[in-house]
Amino acid sequence: MMKDMEKRLNKIFDETTEEELSLFKKAAEIIKAEGLVAFPTETVYGLGANALNENAVKKIYEAKGRPSDNPLILHVSGIEMAESLVHINETAKLLMNKFWPGPLSLVLKAKDIIPLSTRGGLSTAAIRMPDNRIALEIIRISNLPIAAPSANKSGRPSPTDAKTVRDDIGDSVELVIDGGKTLVGLESTVLDITGENPILLRPGAISKEEIEAVLNVTVLFSQDENIIKRSPGVRYRHYAPNIPLMLSDVENASKYASGKKWAWIGISEPKGTPNIKIIFLNTNEYAKELFRVLREIETTKVEVIIAEKPEQKGIGLALTDRLIKAAGN
Ligand code: TXA
Ligand code: MG
User: Considering every ligand atom, which ligand is closest to the CA of 105?
Assistant: First the structure.
């Protein structure tokens, strides 16, 4: 592991209090005993189990109601653990050193140690090192890679706080660890680096441009059939609020509402008078709060959500991707 990463991690672990440590140990015990633990990461909350144990992984699919051919991301505590799971190439090394711990999941050739059920029957597996002290401590103490999808029922928005996790899947987990609101609010970038050119399978906080700057090659990203087939998760119907959602610019907002009770979400003032108006400070806040706000608006009498189309750079691309999915397109 790189020296600076090691130093940073030591500092992270130094901050853990005795009380927290006993909670993390309890979580690690549950993981080792084939149980489920929900915990925060920097992106969204995860529903974790021992990635190397078929029984444990099966419980994740059951709790979420997730199709069994949709593979899970393995969360690791560092490069060494990653090496025990997948074949690491030069591209992977560059990206890990630059972006880990952080919201970048790398799809690589899997080693046999990863059960097929964890990787949805594929020859590859996605791994990432989360930038969250609680997540890292549980992985480190259990000394196991933790398979963790977002801790929501399939088809619901990813949870960004512990209360939402409890409401959604609280009954099926042994422990929910509350680490406050997550920092990023959207799931990690998923990048396939098994081929000549990296393929962006899911945009996230680590942007295409940032990855290209490190690798000096073009990252492919398209809604192309073949690419979609490579990331099984992309095939499934994603979260759509039970109220219709439409993307719009400021000018056309009230036109799209067409006389219905409407909510506006975005970073600018809309034309017209929405029944609910939520204006974020900037695109980062828009991304961070999106899932929480959508769940909140669902509880009101609003009939349509008009979402401002984000700028097409940085986190704006990931945000647009989630909004398009929420719109059901
Ligand atoms: O930020 C995140 O990634 C969160 C937190 C908890 O870490 N996790 C998360 O997991 O979003 P999930 O299961 O909701 O999404 C995993 C995505 C899916 O789109 C899945 O298809 C893709 O990663 N994936 C996993 N393994 C893959 C593989 N071997 N090849 C292609 N895509 C893969
Ligand atoms: Mg998910």
Answer: 1
Architecture of the 3-228 domain = Alpha-Beta Complex (3.90)
Eight-class DSSP state of 92: H
Strands 46-50 and 37-39: antiparallel
d(CA 26, ligand 2 centre) in Å: 25
Distance between CA atoms of residues 293 and 286, nearest Å: 9
Q: List residues near ligand 1 (CB under 6 A).
A: 41, 43-44, 46, 70-73, 103, 105, 107, 119, 122, 124-126, 130, 148-150, 187-188, 190, 201-202, 230-234
Please state which CATH class domain 245-326 belongs to.
alpha beta
- The order of strands in the sheet holding 276-279 is 245-248, 304-308, 262-266, 276-279
pLDDT tens digits, one per residue of 82-123: 999 999 999 999 999 999 999 999 999 999 999 999 999 999
- Ligand 2 mean position, distance from CA 269 (Å): 31
What atom of ligand 1 comes closest to residue 122's alpha carbon?
29
Contact 120, 71 (CB under 8 A): yes
Under 8 Å between Cβ of 267 and 281: yes
Q: Give the tens place of pLDDT for each residue, 8-42.
A: 777 777 788 889 999 999 999 999 999 999 999 99
Q: Do domains 3-228 and 245-326 have the same CATH topology?
A: no
Domain ranges of the chain: 3-228, 245-326
Dihedral angle sign, alpha carbons of residues 86, 89, 92, 97: positive
